[in-house]
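Sharing a chain and its predicted structure for anyone who wants a worked example. Both blocks are below, sequence first, tokens second.
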Amino acid sequence: MKAKYTAIWLTLLTVVMPCQVGNTALGQPNEDWTGITFEELRELVRGLPKPEGQIQAIRVFPDTAPSGIVILSLVPRQGWQVIVFKRMPAKHFALAWNSEILNEKDGISSSSGKELTIGRLGHEILIQLEGCVTHVCPDDFGILIYAPSQGKAFKAHYQSGQIHYSSGLESPENQPYRTFLEERVKQRVNIGATAQDRVWRYEPTKVELQGRLTIEQRCGPPGYGENPDTDQRVQIPVLLLSAPIDVQGDPQSDLNQETVRGVQRVQLVLEATSYRRLVGKNITVKGTLFRAITGHQYTDVVMNVLNVRESPSPKKKSSFQLRCSR
């Protein structure tokens, strides 16, 4: 046990150093962090909650009075935990708050020490942890915030295109926290921006498109339009976008170097059974974009679809393009 505590003290002494939050340096000498005693560290360690976790990050933050330390812990086979200590006037640390164990249910099963940050909401210090669900990043993620001066903690969980907030955020007095979480979610997934405002990229970046699903009849093998009289007729699913987009080329890619502007139609690559019932309807598709390079790819930009869902909108009849063309 003594060796374990010694290792933790050395970790604390190493990481309790000046850190940067925005343009404000935290943990400077005038915060008196250089005067922390071994006894204070022993008391801090004794105050760590159960179950025992592995320390992944430690941050220092100033508050109006007193200052404090934030620890990010990973509890094996359970999840993540944020632990906050305040340094009291008598120069000892007291456990101020600790989160529940955070995992898939919160959208935070995959995280890291880099995801633990300290920022500001106005003049208020805000502790923040972000993460996502393993194997589903970045489509399922969560954000936790804690305000030390108010002793309040809130969460936002982005899942399947919807934002789920923790209780209490509907109160007018907590509206600033809800707004902060909403804006941070938008930054991560770029939702709420118009199509013209977004930067659309090729694979492997996952993107989300909205529009009306149509079926177009085209010329297939063997000539793919070179011999319309003998070419087979094929039907392909095409998304008519709600607004044109520009897809930025990737200079590091062998196939997707070209930027394509004003894209209005995107061929979708997906199983017929997953979209037949949605033909003629407004839908939202999520997947990866790539540049058309073969004869059976009929639009300038094509999407490999990961999932598709109907968007809330009036039903429309399916659209067929009867003329065989390339």
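Comments welcome. Residues 1-34, 314-326 have pLDDT under 50 and may be disordered.
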